[in-house]
């Protein structure tokens, strides 16, 4: 059965909603950073207490998350011009993600409601079986060589090398190690796999009920 252009648009919105939701939950996973403070012994890299370090992390995240916070200020970490530029570019990506989530969530809801009313939830199975395979492939490539993946990731999203921090001028990088970002990617891939698996599960269950 061919989808109408409106249903194709709804499917795209649903894919984007679930993707941006996974990103949103990942970038706001403060608990993961708290875990890594202990797990990676980040306090050994700074003179700060755990509370002070988390306060600085919260200041950074407030800048990245909130459009009305226009200047990055961390109580105990200076920021160079290039460091500020990179964080500004990250902030724009955060806000773009939130914008996509906000724009697609309602169309996704109406699309799902349409499929449920038409008893066609099963039509989600095939596209999401394809979609669920993509993160697996990307995660595999990441696991093979995370260093190269990390560089490529920044090369795709940024058109400069401001993301390469000098710990002398931007000491925040000493408490934001690459391993922390590796853990963030793992969390993201787990979440997006769960979210993309759900339409497959409910689609197959709906199909069984109709038989």
Q: How would you describe this protein?
A:
The longest helix has 37 residues, at 81-117. The protein is mostly helical. The chain is built from 8 helices and no strands. Helix content is 71%, strand content 0%. It starts with a helix and ends with a helix. Helix 5 runs antiparallel to helix 8 (178-210).
Task: Give a short synopsis of this structure.
Keywords: Membrane, Transmembrane, Transmembrane helix. The chain has 211 residues and is an all-alpha fold. The protein has one domain.
Looking at the structure, what is the overall shape? elongated
User: Which spans of ≥5 residues are poorly predicted at pLDDT below 50?
Assistant: none
The description of the largest β-sheet is: none
Mean pLDDT, all residues: 94
The value of Rg in angstroms is 20 Å
Strand content: under 5%
β-strand number: 0
How far apart are the first and last residues' alpha carbons, in Å? 18 Å
Give me the secondary-structure category: mainly alpha
Tally of helical runs: 8
Q: What's the order of the H and E elements? A: HHHHHHHH
Primary descriptors:
8 helices, single chain, mainly alpha, 211 residues
Please write out the topology.
Layout: H1 5-27, H2 30-39, H3 50-65, H4 81-117, H5 125-131, H6 133-144, H7 146-157, H8 178-210
Protein name: TIGR01906 family membrane protein
Organism: Enterococcus dongliensis
Transmembrane segments: 93-112, 124-144, 180-202
